[in-house]
Amino acid sequence: MDTLETLRGMIIDKFEVTADEVQPQATLETLGLDSLAVFDLIFDIESKFDIKVENDQVQISTVGDVVSLIDRLRKEQGKTG
Amino acid sequence: MRRVAVTGWGVVSPFGEGVDPLMDAVNAGRSAVRAFAGRNDGPWPLRAAAWNDSYDPRAHFPLAQLNSLDRTTQLAVVAARAALAMAGRDGMPHAEACGIHVGTGMGSAGTLDSTYRTYYADNNTRLRPLTVPTVMTNASAAQIALETGFAGANLTYSCACASSAVAIGEAVRRIRHGDAQLMLAGGSEALVVPSVVYAWEALRTLADVDAAAPSASCRPFSLRRSGLVLGEGAAFLVLEDWDAACARGARPLAEICGYGSGSDSGHLTRPTVEGQARAMAAALRDAALAPAAIGYINAHGTGTQANDSTESAAIRQVFGDLADHLPVSSTKAVHGHLLGAAAALELLVTLCALQSGLAPPTAHLDEPDPACALDHVRGAARRLPDITHAMSNSFAFGGTTGVLIARRVA
User: Is the predicted pLDDT of residue B23 greater than 90, yes or no?
Assistant: First the structure.
């Protein structure tokens, strides 16, 4: 499953939004996530994708930003494949 | 001085949500106490407890929000919502004139327990990001403010078993002094979690489980009492400036007219007759009432050896021979000891007793202790058609005392 699909499932389960709403261009704010909810999501992302997100990497706005961050960190941290 | 009206109340008790399940059980002497061998979250001692397993978090909160709400906070919010709904929001004062006082003994005990388990037992340093704002002792007050938009005082009182008596009493003072027109005040506690129950167990204060009748394990004022039983829940009152409440069309359900609080200053856990008597006398002075005006006392009555005989002597000291015919009961026998929420829930029981003219019994009191010689309401609830005022006592570990007096509204 690609990163967007996995992330979409996590956001749907956690924040009770519909699949249609979780598009790459959608901002986390419009999905109802405030800054604390983003921290909570990142915590689960770290577990799910086995990556470490540093404090200076949490400035993310859209679902697409999160996907890019996950893919980049997985590559950098040797978690691809 | 401004008078303080109660215009709404809400409760989540071991009997469920709402006042009716609570009062039906309390008046019938029907107990929510059960033997408790634990849940699936760790080893447990076999103890009696009174907890609410009908409460459904998802009926009240979206999934995402539950990440940051300990059970204590959830129960507080649910009870506070119910109290506000009862009081009605039409014509409510502006946000700065509305405040929130919350009493809690141990705060978010469940989240702290599971967090420590993650760190120490699972050897995992990855703790949930919202752990701090979830476990902070003022989490309940904060969440209620977020929901209500109340922008006045937002305070949390933590003085063990007297926490919500003080939260309510200080709210009464705030209104009397004109610092607020409306206060949402109460308490919440949810500490039926393994580490906390073991800690209480270690203090040798928990009641033995009555093998033949676990529901009768808590026996306040009885010769056979063996300790307290932990309970969980939350209760909140809407308190308002009497005249302002009437002007906005809210109906006063009762008046809180007396509050006394002080310190035993004697021992960490053992209460003193003098300390308890001082608080009752202070509440009577505050209400400008003679002892004879009190028609019912909802006692602290924990079921421990030390409290019940001490409280009985303190009532005797304040009320003298009047105590021969002053109905007293402890409803902890059926709902357990809600600690930081105990005073709020028991004041609510007291207000319902005033309103209905029916004093609930102390359940399981077949053999009163001669050292607790009072006019016990036992067996069945007692009709008190002429009652005008009632008192609710709360006395804490650490020595803080809190006594509230309410007046019946005709």
Answer: yes
CATH topology of domain B258-408: Peroxisomal Thiolase; Chain A, domain 1 (3.40.47)
Residues paired with B400 in a beta bridge: B263
What mean pLDDT, rounded, does chain B reach? 96
* Residue B337 bears catalytic tag: yes
If you measure CA to CA, which chain B residue comes closest to A40?
B129
Domain B4-247, CATH among 3.40.47.10, 3.40.50.720, 1.20.1250.20, 3.40.50.300 = 3.40.47.10
Comparing CB atoms, the residue among B64, B68, B130 nearest residue A15 is: B64
CA dihedral B108, B159, B183, B296 (to 10 degrees): 120
**C-alpha distances in Å from residue B90, one per residue of B65, B144, B179:** 28, 19, 21
- Domain residue spans of chain B: 4-247, 258-408
Are B63 and A14 within 8 A, CB to CB? yes
Is the predicted pLDDT of residue A81 greater than 60, yes or no? Answer: no
Mean pLDDT of B12-32: 98
Nearest-CB residue to A36 (from B63, B68, B126):
B68
Class of domain A3-76: mainly alpha
Residue B154 pLDDT level (bands cut at 50, 70, 90)? very high
Do the Cβ atoms of A40 and B67 come within 8 Å? yes
For A15, nearest residue in chain B (alpha carbons): B64
- Rounded distance, CA B346 to CA B359, Å? 12
